[in-house]
Specification:
It is a single chain. With 62 residues, the chain is of the alpha+beta class. It has one domain. The protein is 21% helix and 26% strand. Strand 2 and strand 3 form a beta hairpin.
């Protein structure tokens, strides 16, 4: 994925206080991209938006 510089990446509200050990997410059409904040130019995980919503819901409920 070569467009990581043009995406609006955000860190979850419960991310590490130093801000350098976080997972960041960005929305791309019907997909959510996930990356490691320590390696912003590294690999990204792409997940269907609905699947990501279900995943986040499970995390919030546990």
């Amino acid at each position: 994925m070569s467009t990581s510089g043009s995406l609006a990446w955000r860190k979850p509200s419960r991310s590490h206080e130093d801000g350098d050990a976080c997972v960041e997410i960005a929305a791309i059409a019907n997909t959510v991209a996930i990356r490691d904040s320590k390696h912003p130019d590294g690999s990204k995980l792409l997940i269907d938006r609905g699947d990501f919503r279900n995943f986040a819901s499970v995390l919030k409920s546990s």
